[in-house]
Amino acid sequence: GKILIYTKDQGAALGDLFGIFFEDINHAADGGLYAEMVRNRSFEFDPIDRHDYDGLTAWEKVELGEGKSSIQVEQEHPIHPRNPHYVAVEIIEAGEGVGIKNLGFNSGLPYREGETYTFSMYARRSASFDEPVAVRLEGIDGTVYGEAKVMVTSEWTKYEVVVASSATDFSGRLAVVTKGNGTLYLDMISLFPTKTFRNRPGGLRDDIATMLADLKPKFMRFPGGCLIHDGSLNAGDRDSMYRWKNTIGPVEQRPPRKNNWRYHQTLGLGYFEYFQFCEDIGAKPIPILPAGSDPHSQRYVPIDELGPWIDDALDLIEFANGDASTEWGSLRALLGHPEPFNLEYIGIGNEEIGEQFFERYTYFHQAIKAKYPDIQIINSSGPFAAGGEYERGWRSARDNGSDFVDEHYYQSPDWLLAHYHRYDSFSADDPKVFLGEYASWGNTYYNALAEAAFMTGLEKNAHAVGLACYAPLLCNIDYVNWKPDLIWFNNHQVFGTANYYVQQMFMHHQGDHLLRMVTDGFAVPAQPAGNKERIEGKLLVGANLNEVVYRDIRLINHETGEVRTLTDKVEIGETEEDRRHRSEFGRNAVVGETGLKSYSLSMKAIRKNGSRGFIMFF
Ligand code: AHR
């Protein structure tokens, strides 16, 4: 056997191969990366989001001493029409103070001794009201860790104050109380740690953002996932598809949104913040837009009404890259970023399988390429199980000249091992693969190892695979929609899984060029001097989906011609469990000698019912 390494320019460029995919699933944004500590800050929670939500979800009444009050959510005089609800605290008896307190995410609001928190709210009062309003960082029993007072006027006004905590308590409460008389109106009650990632006000949780930055991803796909295309076609609906224009500008003017992962989405983490975060961590932004097509509820915008949807895509590119003389570029400058965000990629659709989507995709593709020929467009394809290996997506991509096709798969570790060669036969002349979502089912070391093996298969096929990202990225342990996930967190801690460290290893060591290697048989690598003289390896044979019987597995030493029978027969069984336990054999069975030796393996195999076999030596 031999290994031939060709020169650099005969290999393929690895480009932006490994990145991350952020979707607000598992409370990844609200109650996660987005550092807002108050849950339901704008009293916009609604049964539309989830059956057990209402405007007062995560809020409790406070009545101290003889205090008595009535609390209700109103909408007659909102701070902005897109943020219609606010709370009215009618003070019946002031006692030692009345008001409301927020329960936060997880066990409560996390306070740390000596740290400061930036509180803000919109408030107004009725004419008779003349007392200050106290803002308190509290424990669950009402112990006050920090307090500030503000005088409120009778017009909606934004108040902001920084409060320090005298204690560490991860189950805290935020109380807003007063001894005034009359009615106090409150909205957008917000508390952020003053220390956020890059110290941006209203920014990102430093610990989670740092975990993401530490991966050193080449790109970030966002904001979904199913999140983008599940929903109604009207951008003004609470349950509309994800429309990026709803997510920019002052947070109190961003409309509430039903998140299809069965919770409420504030959109406080919006497109401007996504672009800024990408820039902060050196990742190229890859926004994914809905194509007016929801394959789940089968809602499709009529073709002759596609215009505004296509405009969304064109305007987004202008928002990211246009200069200050353009409409959307000037808005970006106004929001604080005169320099472009240098958008290179855009994705249309997510996990699409229907003809209705592909019909619409063509209109998007043509309009984008006509105006922005250098923008690389990502077409879509269904999840692996749905579409006969994605054929429809690939056909559309070839017909339209898409730059990428987005493939997704969540499978067993053995499936990933069995599909190590998936892209070997893909042509460099085709659109490239964007593996926009993949994972093996679990966060064990074995899952991580299988993913690592699979990722070497992505690397070695850089001619065909352009971009790849694990999914999902983040999960709040108390709000699990989906697992496994790459990073787990609660309201004050964050943990990387074994899978995280595999991703990190690959991202930290991304090459620029693939050196083409040709092997004949396989080679046992030379051992450095001083190492043991005999090389021991292990052979893994497996099966995917169903049974496989292997017979007469033999190892042939190319130099001596020696033929060694490793085993007469291995039967890989029917169940997943069975396959996992019985697929590994021959530990310490393959023995070579120091120096580069080469071997061939011969075997006979019979498969049942379309199963696939695979073999690894390591
Ligand atoms: O990653 C979780 C979900 O899996 C994504 O939202 C969707 O695209 C896929 O089905």
From TrEMBL:
Keywords: Glycoprotein, Hydrolase, Signal. GO terms for biological process: L-arabinose metabolic process. The keyword Amino-acid biosynthesis does not apply. Its EC number is 3.2.1.55. It comes from the Bacteria. The keyword Isomerase does not apply. GO terms for molecular function: alpha-L-arabinofuranosidase activity. It catalyses: Hydrolysis of terminal non-reducing alpha-L-arabinofuranoside residues in alpha-L-arabinosides. Belongs to the glycosyl hydrolase 51 family. This is non-reducing end alpha-L-arabinofuranosidase. It comes from Paenibacillus algorifonticola. The chain holds residues 5 to 622 of 796 of the full protein.
